[in-house]
Amino acid sequence: MAMMIREDFREILRLVRPGARVLDVGCGEGALLELLTREKAVDGRGLEISAHGVAACMARGLSVVQGDADQDLDHFPDKTFDYAVLSQTLQATRNPRHVLDELLRIADRAIVSFPNFGHWRVRWSLISRGRMPETKALPMPWWSTPNIHLCTLADFMALTDDLGVRVDASAAFAGNGPARAIDPTKALENWRSETCLFLLSRGTPAERVEPSAVSGDLLIP
């Protein structure tokens, strides 16, 4: 039976160059890192806060250390990696601005995904029920969620502007559907996008990663 791959993992797999040096921050039990190693032959490393996650990664044969993104990214030298990946973890950090800044110090590019608190289901839940929403992207009740800094797509774009970060590619997910390339500056996307994923960088302007006219996939410059 073919292994099911999360749609956001598929998109990250498309964006990462073969053989690249990759740091997966908040790598959990190593599913994404293992996928990148197998499919793209990356030189992969992981940083995971939980001892259980580190043990699971080591059982997969992955190179992972236990550490906290809020503190331990500071110890990596500049430009150690080609990509730093932060998948569904930014909202669980204590200082998201610092973490994002550090990702683009230690890597040429950062791939960041997060649940969009501006999605219409979230807004409707707040309006109709007056309670913190529980959706596919935000499945846990407020009292047990690790998410402490939820943000909207518009909030994230404001943060990239504040940091002087360039958006090289952006995609959105809703339900179980595949990635959809978006223009994150459009107000409508703040309503439509349940989960957002960005390829970010700094430095001189580069060719933007655009959707393929044939398949809709994101192309790697």
TrEMBL record:
InterPro entries xrefs: Methionine_synth_MetW, SAM-dependent_MTases_sf
Name of the protein: Methionine biosynthesis protein MetW
